[in-house]
């Protein structure tokens, strides 16, 4: 499989707005001062010139998005204007344009200046559309063949203050869903310093940075020597953890190999082979819980969530799958129960039985693996002997924020 290792800008359907380089002179244009009402709410509008073309926008939207220092803080990127104070019948008294900008003078004397490039990116139309104007990364789906060239970054590069290695590490996660770091000193402190290059550790009922052996310190099968099937963690959280990191510091025994499965690849296969099952697991919501410790009883709010979760454009963004942590099914109808189990078994047949989708590998001192818990499922073979595993959780929003900042993403959506 060919892996796409470069950032891609998501394609966005935009209205065609032509920018003219010849319209250099600033000039008032009375024909752009329309104050047409828009139905019962009587919001006025302005025809905004964009070279030889124009676009009709609501006055309240333009005033609400004014980028002058009194309305929008240039450092914090936060709105300062109180939207409630903007009149619904706000009228423009003057509209001028240059090659690059549009200047609107409002009836109250306030002046709003917009870059035409900004307006081209953000101007809306009669049909609603969700826009992703910032740099994003195209997931490269994989199966067992990833073993030939798994994504990896040397420890020294990740720790380098230039952030080039850190960026590569985070881009590996964004594209492939996981990455190794090789040459990590075999200690808890150095492992903590490594994850701190991304962001802070997410605390949970398991603690911050874990350091555990199979001693059932917590009521969870992870704290045993049993085999664990492929799953994602913390399906019982309202906001499941974003990243999970492991560093095996010691193992005196046999077994315990680690498994990663690309959940997005499994979903793609389910959609190809069983489209009805894909729809069922995208629309049927079930509950999950964590209740193995006497002082812990966690479940999310809202209580129920789908296994396959999509964004507003229909793109798969999150897998929530842990068969062990699924709660009692007592809320579905008779027909829904049959449809759900049929879909779940088809999912499991792909996730647990397709050897061509499994990537098995041994962990050991000096090698850290980190993976996107919203995408990649992990598992473990049964083992014998003493096994000391360390690791931690990281918030999803925070690791994605760190990637954007080290990659220099233009903050167009502010």
Automatic annotation (TrEMBL):
Pathway: Amine and polyamine biosynthesis; carnitine biosynthesis. This is trimethyllysine dioxygenase. It is an enzyme of class 1 (oxidoreductase). Belongs to the gamma-BBH/TMLD family. GO terms for biological process: carnitine biosynthetic process. Residues 145-393 form the TauD/TfdA-like domain. One of its GO terms (molecular function) is trimethyllysine dioxygenase activity. It catalyses: N(6),N(6),N(6)-trimethyl-L-lysine + 2-oxoglutarate + O2 = (3S)-3-hydroxy-N(6),N(6),N(6)-trimethyl-L-lysine + succinate + CO2. GO terms for cellular component: mitochondrion. NCBIfam families: carnitine_TMLD. It comes from Allomyces macrogynus (strain ATCC 38327). Residues 53-119 form the Gamma-butyrobetaine hydroxylase-like N-terminal domain. The keyword Iron applies.
């Amino acid at each position: 499989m060919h892996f796409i290792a470069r950032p891609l800008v998501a394609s966005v359907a935009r209205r065609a707005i032509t920018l003219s380089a010849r319209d250099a002179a600033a000039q008032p244009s009375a024909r752009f001062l329309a104050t047409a009402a828009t139905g019962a709410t009587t919001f006025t509008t302005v025809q905004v010139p964009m070279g030889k073309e124009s676009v009709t926008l609501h006055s309240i939207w333009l005033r609400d998005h004014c980028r002058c220092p009194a309305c929008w803080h240039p450092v914090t990127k936060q709105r300062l204007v109180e939207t409630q104070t903007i009149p619904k019948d706000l009228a423009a008294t003057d509209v001028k344009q240059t090659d690059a900008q549009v200047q609107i003078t409002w009836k109250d004397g306030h002046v709003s200046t917009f870059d035409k490039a900004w307006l081209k990116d953000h101007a809306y139309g009669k049909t609603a559309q969700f826009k992703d104007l910032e740099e994003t990364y195209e997931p490269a789906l994989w199966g067992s063949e990833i073993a030939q060239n798994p994504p990896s970054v040397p420890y020294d590069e990740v720790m380098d203050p230039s952030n080039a290695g850190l960026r590569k590490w985070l881009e590996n996660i964004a594209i492939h869903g996981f990455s190794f770091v090789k040459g990590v000193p075999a200690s808890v402190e150095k492992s903590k310093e490594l994850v701190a290059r991304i962001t802070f550790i997410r605390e949970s009922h398991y603690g911050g940075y874990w350091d555990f052996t199979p001693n059932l310190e917590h009521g969870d099968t992870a704290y045993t020597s049993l085999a664990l099937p492929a799953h994602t963690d913390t399906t019982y959280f309202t906001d499941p953890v974003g990243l999970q990191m492991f560093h095996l510091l010691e193992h005196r025994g046999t077994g315990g190999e680690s498994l990663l499965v690309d959940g997005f690849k499994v979903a793609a296969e389910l959609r190809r082979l069983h489209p009805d099952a894909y729809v069922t697991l995208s629309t049927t919501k079930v509950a999950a819980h964590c209740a193995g410790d006497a002082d812990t009883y966690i479940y999310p709010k809202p209580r129920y969530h789908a296994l396959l979760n999509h964004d507003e454009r229909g793109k798969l963004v999150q897998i929530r799958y842990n068969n062990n942590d699924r709660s009692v099914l007592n809320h579905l109808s008779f027909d829904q129960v049959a449809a759900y189990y049929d879909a779940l078994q088809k999912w499991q047949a792909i996730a647990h039985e397709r050897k061509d989708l499994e990537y098995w590998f041994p962990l050991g001192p000096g090698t850290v693996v980190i993976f996107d818990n919203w995408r990649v499922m992990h598992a473990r073979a049964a083992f014998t002997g003493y096994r000391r595993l360390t690791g931690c959780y990281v918030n999803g929003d925070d690791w994605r924020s760190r990637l954007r900042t080290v990659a220099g993403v233009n903050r167009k959506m502010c």
